[in-house]
Design goal:
The structure holds two protein chains of two kinds. By secondary structure, chain A is mostly helical. Chain A has a single domain, classed as Orthogonal Bundle (MetI-like fold). Chain A is about 75% helix and about 0% strand. Chain A has twelve helices and no strands. The termini of chain A are far apart. The relative contact order of chain A is 0.13. By secondary structure, chain B is of the alpha/beta class. In chain B, the strands form three sheets. In chain B, strands 8-9-10-3-11-12 form a six-stranded mixed sheet, sandwiched between helices. In chain B, strands 2-1-4-5 form a four-stranded antiparallel sheet, with helices on one face. A two-stranded antiparallel sheet of chain B has the order 6-7. In chain B, strand 1 and strand 2 form a beta hairpin. Classes of the chains: A mainly alpha, B alpha/beta. At the A-B interface, helix 9 and helix 10 of A face helix 2, strand 8 and helix 3 of B.
């Protein structure tokens, strides 16, 4: 074992020594990413409905919101919230300052949430608009009100169709969360940067970080594959599972 | 000829832009009537049916369901719109529709499709609705497919589910919009036979169709639409054996 390790041009013991830091980095990354996805997702649902509607005020309003947030880099958005807002005396005096806007963690969470909400809203809007027209008509003809058919027919169908695209958004958000490391947070990349800064050893920290991100993405894709199998069954061919369902072979 | 009026349509007009598709059609169905609506494509027969439950909003004309008028009003752009959307929703629940393209809710199983209207629109207790749904699926011969998704069924099976879904609402009138036109020829029979059973049970039905045999053998009254107007109507025996207008004669010879 000792021999093999000596051939790897990495200071493994340094990584091992700091492994608890990396674990804490994983926790910070997951924490920020998951919370941003949850809050962003919740924000995205009403925005997607408004965007898909032909409401003369709400639809363009949401369009503007998503256009701005998708049109600017997440890093810039994070800086604007973290460094930018603190410039205003009024912000520093307000009740929002002390627990929230002065904290890097909260600023990152707010930036990530707004960012993912814009992407998710557009993605969901597409899925809502793509709901088969006939299925919507069938609901109208059955006497479903607008709210009821949104809740029972359009959203459940749209959510399912959005799953594959949403898995990408989840991965992008995870990757985007490295931005947190630029505003002092010790997320996965933050720990890598810290290691590099302290020991001047770039590979140890960054390869470990890359490997950890890779592991998380691997887990995410597995989870989504399971979700797709469960919730997109209605779009796939039915598997012939039992012998009785199979067409018998013609006998000679 | 006097019966209880189930559905009455008075002088219905509908235009798409400059093009008038329905030019004043009136029709009355008494309880138990089966009215077959025939016509070449473009004659406005589907549009007419879709105006009854307001999937298309007619420009003028009245629809009465069991004597109750669907109230319309003019909006500020001068368009005709429902006066009270709740009333329209209530009426739609009593006017079940079967579509050419089945339009089953693809993310729901067969059973969930049949339960949706009774449970969520009519607020029937789930257990009661389920019992009825099982009976209806048995009636259309699909008891063993209750847990299937629509995509895993043949067209004929899907359309029979759609009929069960419509029946689950206990509708006063059933509207069929070319229910067999999207089916492979060998699957048409199973759907028609279910519809034939419904007619025999005394269901009130308006059926837009290209199935001449269904119109001739099953309908109590046949209406032939031509260019948005009623061209010829009457008992099918009389209509088919003795067409009066040139248009209907031409239509019949094209269909045979």
């Amino acid at each position: 074992m000792e021999n093999i390790l000596s051939y790897i041009p990495l200071d493994i013991s340094l990584i091992a020594e700091n492994f608890d830091r990396f674990l804490y980095g994983v926790w910070t990354t997951l924490n920020l990413t998951v919370l941003a996805l949850v809050f962003g997702g919740l924000l995205a649902i009403p925005m997607a409905i408004a965007r898909a509607s032909r409401h003369r005020v709400l639809s363009p309003l949401v369009w503007g919101y998503t256009y701005v947030l998708r049109g600017t880099p997440l890093l810039v958005q994070t800086y604007l919230i973290y460094y930018g807002l603190g410039q205003f005396e009024a912000v520093r005096q307000s009740w929002l300052w002390d627990p929230i806007l002065s904290s890097a963690w909260w600023c990152a969470l707010i930036a990530f949430t707004l960012n993912t909400s814009a992407y998710t809203a557009e993605l969901l809007r597409g899925a809502i608009v793509d709901t088969p027209k006939g299925e919507v008509e069938a609901a109208i003809a059955t006497g479903h009100s607008y709210g009821l058919r949104m809740r029972r027919i359009i959203l459940p169908s749209a959510f399912r169709r959005a799953i594959p695209a949403y898995s990408n958004e989840v991965i992008f958000m995870l990757h985007g969360s490295v931005v947190a490391s630029t505003i002092t947070l010790q997320d996965i990349l933050g720990v890598g940067r810290w290691l590099n800064g302290r020991y001047y050893l770039a590979y140890e920290g960054f390869i470990t970080a890359a490997f950890l991100y890779f592991l998380i993405v691997f887990a995410i894709t597995r989870v989504f594959r399971w979700i797709e199998r469960r919730y997109l069954r209605h779009l796939t061919r039915r598997e012939t599972t039992t012998a009785t369902e199979m067409t018998p072979e013609p006998t000679r | 000829m006097t019966g209880i009026s189930a559905l009455k349509i008075n002088d219905l007009h509908k235009s798409f832009g400059q093009h008038e598709v329905i030019k004043g059609v009136s029709m009355e169905a008494n309880k138990g009537d089966v009215i077959a609506i025939l016509g070449a494509s473009g004659s406005g027969k589907s549009t007419f049916l879709r105006c009854i439950n307001l999937l298309e909003t007619p420009n003028s004309g009245d629809v009465f369901l069991a004597g109750e008028k669907i109230e319309m009003k003019q909006n500020r752009h001068g368009e005709t719109v429902p006066a009270n959307i709740r009333q329209v929703e209530r009426m739609r629940a009593r006017l079940a529709m079967v579509f050419q393209g089945f339009n089953l809710w693809s993310h729901m199983t067969v059973m969930e499709n049949v339960l949706e209207g009774p449970v969520h629109v009519q607020k029937t207790p789930r257990a009661e609705a389920r019992e009825k749904a099982e009976a209806l699926l048995a009636k259309v011969g699909l008891s063993d497919r209750a847990d299937y998704y629509p995509a895993h069924l043949s067209g004929g099976q899907q359309q029979r589910v759609a009929i069960a879904r419509a029946l689950a609402m206990d509708p006063d009138v059933m509207l069929f919009d070319e229910p067999t036109s999207a089916l492979d020829p060998e699957l048409v029979g199973e759907v028609l036979s279910v519809m034939r059973d419904l007619a025999e049970e005394g269901r009130t039905m308006l059926v837009v169709t290209h199935e001449m045999s269904f119109a001739r053998d099953v309908s109590s009254k046949t209406v032939f639409l031509h260019k948005g107007e009623v061209c010829e109507e009457g008992p099918p025996a009389k209509l088919f054996s003795n067409p009066e207008t040139e248009q209907f004669r031409a239509f019949l010879s094209r269909m045979n």
